[in-house]
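thought: fold this chain, then report.
action: predict
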Amino acid sequence: MRTVTPAERDLARIIWEQAGNQPASPQGQNLMTATFEKLRLHLLKLIGVMGFQTMFARALALAKLEIDWLHDVQIDQDGSLIGFVEAAFKSETNDAAEGGIALLAHLLSLLDNSIGEILTFRLVKSIWPEISDESILFNAGEGP
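observation:
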């Protein structure tokens, strides 16, 4: 199993920050879950509920190895997160962001590994069109 590349982690950070994810406010609560919800809704169309739930559960398991507070988070039967916001509020503010970024990075990595860089690029671009193409490219010098 390959690990998250620096480019995948950078992309996760860009998505997280552009979405305005700040756990310290009620608006931040909605944005934190909205980032994953946007991705979930798009991926459900491609890989179905079971496929997404499996991929998201794997991403969460991998992110839990990096971020302790994610152990309180679970995946619901429809693939949505359970307990993410509550667990993030219990952690330090910076650690909350790092947990979201780690989970998103592992999900992007699994996507890249499963459907390839070009389809992952198109998916990310369709969900977050404001992100520059260069930010989405995973391999330096290579791209769609």
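thought: worth noting. Confidence is low (pLDDT under 50) at residues 23-29, 140-144.
final: tokens above.
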